[in-house]
Every structure is written in structure tokens, then in C-alpha cells.
Amino acid sequence: RYRNFETQLFRVSVPENWKEFSDNSSVTFAPDGAYGNQQGQSVFTHGAIVGVMDSPSNDLTKVSDQYISGVLQGNAYLKPEGKYQSESISGHKALRRRLSGTSPVTNRKEIVDVHTSLTSRGRLFYIVQVVPDNAEGQYKRAFDQMLRSATFAN
Question: How many CA atoms lie less than 13 Å away from 23 in the CB half-sphere?
Fold first, then answer.
């Protein structure tokens, strides 16, 4: 079962039992047992981050590269896997890039799929989906539902 989560900037459908944690620019969604604190930092082992940020360019690939560069800086254990894959979010052209690495929290391989799209106002909309590789199948339906349901304010 799913519920709609809505802000002024976006709407997305998430599993009913996932908690949300908001900051100024994004919302993290995670099921029980998938989040906590480690060495004073908030961490989560599976779930998704959804947000919108100002974009310095209307070039989706360039802006996605910049966003992913920031993700990689903050998570040095992750490395890009393969090239961008084209997709669509809310009827807009979108890109997906897979990152992976051994999580310092679980010491297991983690898969991070970064989905990006530009709103018609030129802002970057993103969904970052995180899951241990051995649980990828278990979360596929929830992650697919998030992508299908995502809409953003133009």
C-alpha cells in the first residue's frame, strides 16, 4: 500500500509504512530499521531521497554530472557503474545513473540509482534510490512506483 507525499515542489507515492525525514531541499524516505545515526551522522541503508534544487544550466547531462559529483564527494565509497540510461519522469526527459560500492554502514555492496530531470523552470528534480544489492528485488516495486508517480511543479 502506498501514500502520496506532497510538497510545493513535487509529489511522489511512497510505501505507507516508510518514514520521512525532511531538510530544506529534500525528503528522505526509509522503512523501519533502515535509518539511524552513526558517528553523529544521519545514515540510511535503504530508501530514497527526493528533492529539487536550482540548476546552473539547462543541459540535463551536465547538471546531472554536477549533482552526481556532489553525491560521490559525500560518499567516497561509491563509484559510477556504466553510462547514463534515458528515461522519463512526469513526462519530462530524465536520466538514470547507477553508483555502487561497499557501504561503510553495512560493509555490504550498496546500489544507488540516481534519477534526474529538469523542470520547465530549469530546476533539477532528483530521486536517489539506495538499496543493498541483495535486497534490490525486494524494493523494485516500491522504487518503480515512486518513479511512475513522481510529478514536479513546473
Answer: 9
DSSP-derived pairing of the beta strands 151-152 and 109-118: unpaired
Distance CA 53, CA 152 (A): 12
The residue among 89, 95, 87, 88 whose CA lies nearest residue 59 is 95
Mean pLDDT by 10 residues, the chain (154 residues): 93 96 89 86 89 93 97 95 96 97 93 96 95 95 96 84
Q: Nine-digit cell at 97?
A: 545513473
With H, G, I as helix, E, B as strand and everything else as coil, classify residue 29: strand
Q: Give the three-state DSSP class for 102.
A: strand
**What are the φ/ψ torsions at residue 84 (nearest 5 degrees)?**
-65, 145
According to DSSP, the residues that pair with 51 across neighbouring strands are 26, 126
**pTM for this predicted structure:** 0.95
CB-based contact 13:3 (threshold 8 Å): yes
